[in-house]
Write a structure and sequence with these properties.
The protein is built from 13 helices and no strands. It is mainly alpha-helical. It has one domain.
């Protein structure tokens, strides 16, 4: 499993954790819902996501907007936010921003950047201790069969939280937008600590204030659809 496939599994797993009916459908031979042909893998990814985000936050992660689309759905939400921001700038008579290339299937570096942002956001409330880190590593070992990818993820989970380090992985406005969007989806924005992390990340990503606000609006819409 490469970084893109792992990201797809994580982004798509929240709903599978909440719906035991999918398992019963698999038992009876009834058609599976889109995106969960491999239910066991989805549940395993859901377990990793639960450890990363904590039980409370994973229940709302991504909403229906990400339930079946994975990384492609995240890119679509980021693109919509970026497009709305461009339209607002044009309506206000401001110079238009350069169009971003939002890829339907992120490349490996792109996917790793979004994974890095997701892992960092999960650490922003300080709930991942040594025991939970060990559990995450064990589950990822069962999910990611690439030793290099597992080693990279282990290092990211153990790395001290640093918004500048996270932002350095963004090679474009496209990737920066997706990294910020997945971070907003993963945190509790009402928490002072996590809100401070989001603001610091947006600064390090050099997101314009209006684009930052538009990305947060998209995140709220996705969560409201859960």
């Amino acid at each position: 499993m490469n970084a893109k496939n792992l990201l797809d599994q994580l982004l798509s797993s929240g709903q599978s954790m909440l719906s035991e009916t999918l398992g019963s459908r698999a038992d009876t031979g009834a058609p599976a819902r889109p995106g969960y042909a491999n239910f066991g893998t989805g549940m395993l990814a859901g377990g990793v996501l639960g450890l990363l985000l904590g039980d409370k936050r994973v229940r709302k992660f991504g909403g229906k907007a990400l339930a079946y689309g994975g990384a492609a759905a995240l890119g679509a939400l980021a693109f919509r936010a970026y497009s709305d921001w461009q339209r607002q700038k044009s309506a206000a008579g401001a110079p238009g921003a350069e169009p971003a290339q939002f890829l339907p299937a992120p490349a490996e570096d792109h996917s790793r950047a979004v994974l890095k942002a997701l892992i960092a956001a999960a650490k922003s409330d300080g709930h991942i201790d040594a025991r939970e880190r060990g559990l995450i590593e064990d589950k990822l070992a069962a999910l990611a069969d690439d030793p290099a990818l597992r080693s990279w993820i282990d290092a990211e989970v153990a790395r001290p939280l640093d918004p500048a380090d996270v932002a350095a992985a963004a090679g474009s406005m496209e990737v920066a937008s997706e990294m910020y969007l997945v971070s907003v989806l993963a945190v509790d924005a009402e928490s002072f600590m996590e809100r401070a992390y989001l603001d610091a990340l947006a600064t390090q990503l050099t997101l314009p204030a209006e684009l930052k606000a538009q990305l947060e609006t998209e995140a709220k819409r996705a969560l409201a659809a859960a």
